[in-house]
Amino acid sequence: MSGQERKFDTKLLHFGTEVDEATGASSVPIYQASTFHHHDIFNPPVHDYSRSGNPTRQALEDYIAVLEGGVRGFAYSTGMSAISSTFMLLSAGDHIIVTEDVYGGTYRLLTTILSRMNIETTFVDMTDLDAVKAALKPNTKAVYMETPSNPTLKITDIGAVAEWAKEKGLLSIVDNTFMTPYYQRPLELGVDIVLHSATKFLGGHSDVLAGLAVAGSEELAKQLKYLQNGLGTVLGAQDSWLLMRGMKTLAARMAHSEISARKLADWLSSRDDIGAVYYPGLPEHPGREVQEKQSTGYGAVVSFDVGSGERAKQLLSRVKLPLVAVSLGAVESILSYPAMMSHASMPAEVRAERGITDGLLRFSVGLEDIDDLIADLEQALQNS
Ligand SMILES: *Cc1c(COP(=O)(O)O)cnc(C)c1O
């Protein structure tokens, strides 16, 4: 049976390099070495310096390429490192169209760093294909999607945007952090490059920072390889190993957390002291149909509005189970406060425009018993 015919859950455990060739060890060895001896100066080793290539990192890069169905994978020190390295495909004078409720760090990179390099961005509501088309300029080179978006979980039709991008000769990029390849594989929908903050669901244990990219073509793979080596934005061997350790349980973690997230979203929707509840699995979610077309699930992140900043802060100080923290996608539940955490770098007016109100909270559902998580939220809500 070839790797291609295997189901996703099987590929998570049997990705090709999971057993050490030399010793049969049950996990990839950690090659903690910066450089490699040339036994024969006329016949250099496969890896000669760990920035350019390291066997542990290579195993991870092959692993994510298999999972996303791409040509080649790349591992970076953080998600932002994967994103910024990929943006280096652009040149001064280029223009890029980006999801308006993009991750806060990506927003900061585009508006305060790449802008200095004369790379121009237009932020659009990507749920509206006409708005995307209207943003096209003569110097547009790329379209950058994030779906579901953060924190209001808006859904972009990946296939439709990718098709239009192809027609116009633009590069299409998806930040697939929220869904992971377990639920959504953008390359199969026609996208050119997939990116991840592997710090989140792929790592899954709040113990490693990492970023991943997968190229859908040999040509792009060559360019990304050149940039990764040239910029030096690589992931270290220890962290590469730790990330693979976490990724093996991705299916089990995602499936469990999603069942709980659905229950949490239903429970929140049934309460009259909660305003908007954002979860693509809710029947009234405007993006539900598109989500079901392009993904096999809804994910484990639920956002909801408790009405005011005062009430949000009270709830945050009263919950006992979730981590109150930035980040998401871990074995433990994480409750975030976008207005003061992930989106603090966004000007208040821009935040308001994008529905990131002072009462908005984002719950990343972990592996605790959902009844305990709901009981904990209930006591925190009752007292606030
Ligand atoms: C966290 C996150 C990032 C940034 O990743 P880091 O690993 O923190 O650098 C990018 N995109 C999304 C959607 C994220 O959630």
TrEMBL record:
Transmembrane segments: none annotated. Its EC number is 4.4.1.13. It comes from the Bacteria. One of its GO terms (molecular function) is transaminase activity. The modification N6-(pyridoxal phosphate)lysine is found at K200. InterPro entries: Cys/Met-Metab_PyrdxlP-dep_enz (IPR000277), Cys_met_metab_PP (IPR054542), PyrdxlP-dep_Trfase (IPR015424), PyrdxlP-dep_Trfase_major (IPR015421), PyrdxlP-dep_Trfase_small (IPR015422). Its cofactor is pyridoxal 5'-phosphate. Keywords: Amino-acid biosynthesis, Aminotransferase, Lyase, Methionine biosynthesis, Pyridoxal phosphate, Transferase. GO terms for cellular component: cytoplasm. One of its GO terms (biological process) is transsulfuration. Belongs to the trans-sulfuration enzymes family. PANTHER family: CYSTATHIONINE BETA-LYASE, TRANS-SULFURATION ENZYME FAMILY MEMBER. This is cysteine-S-conjugate beta-lyase.
